[in-house]
Task: structure prediction
Amino acid sequence: RFPHPPLHQMDPVSRANTRMIIKRIDQDWYLMLDEILHSGETKSARAKKMLKESLVAATPIFDSQPYFMSEEFALIDCVMAPLLWRLPSIGIELNSVSDEMTRYAHRLFSRKAFKASLSDIEKEMAELPK
Result:
């Protein structure tokens, strides 16, 4: 079947778990990112600290398997890539979060489709891995 590997899991329980995780990422990490980008200095600094601490707390997720809780690239990785790509532009260096997350991010960023998806402005936010 096309595409392989599928971005969505085949069984209903895994699909439901994926949807719940994506919702949490959106409500937690992306909400903090939005606050950093569109709030005042004090609120932005607090959100940046919370985002970094939350990512550090999630480090074990990125250490156990090559992709987000999976052996294969999936939809959750598509959700994570833009967030991780923007971290340096808001002053959060990936290597300051964890080595595991840095390796995970480089796996995402080195994908041909990710590189092709970046706009010119996004390419200036961070450096693509070779």
Summary: The mean pLDDT is 91.
